[in-house]
Design brief:
There is one protein chain. This protein is an all-alpha fold and 206 residues long. The protein has eight helices and two strands, in the order H-H-H-H-H-H-H-E-E-H. The protein has a two-stranded antiparallel sheet with strand order 1-2. Helix 2 runs antiparallel to helix 4, helix 2 runs antiparallel to helix 8 and helix 6 packs antiparallel against helix 7.
Length: 206
Amino acid sequence: MKITFTPDDEPYLGRELLFHFDQMISCCLEKNAIVAPISHEMDLTSSQKMACQVIPQSISIALSIRELVRQGYLFGAHVLKRSLIERVMILLYLHKYPDKISLWEGGWNHRKAPSLAKMFEEINNKEQSNMDVKGYELTASLNSLVHGKPDSAPWNSVVMGDGKFGHTPSKMLASPELCDELCADILPWLTIIPAMICAYFPEQNA
């Protein structure tokens, strides 16, 4: 088994969703590169200070996920989904509820700040989508991956040499469906990041 893959020979090279993943990461980096230097010269609001931290963190996690995919560590990439989604949701939530920025400034304490599930529900209600969204249903699989619950098993299951299923501790180089699932899960969140850059820094026409 090859130890380190490059962009020229990575195991899932050519997957359509992975290609779109790459395009969105490039878009996020380009938008951030426009605003980042300008932000150092601005008198930032509290919300903009938060965005200057959370936006780069979100992009960094997306890049980490991408590198894990390149090296075949699909399980680890799936585990990081929640970290990315939670940061994007913080950006969305504080954009929709700017009066809640004090929670961020106060440390985003888990006893006071909304959970990821709660942010899903509150944003849905704010949008009046008429959908009965239960936040815990949307976060259940993410929590299972992070906390090692029994139902996280499929994300590192592979077929062994004897035809039986096992759980790999290493690279997964022949699981294109799992790669596609990851990209499909991540792509909608990546599209939000450039929108949030524009939302928090509208005067820059980012």
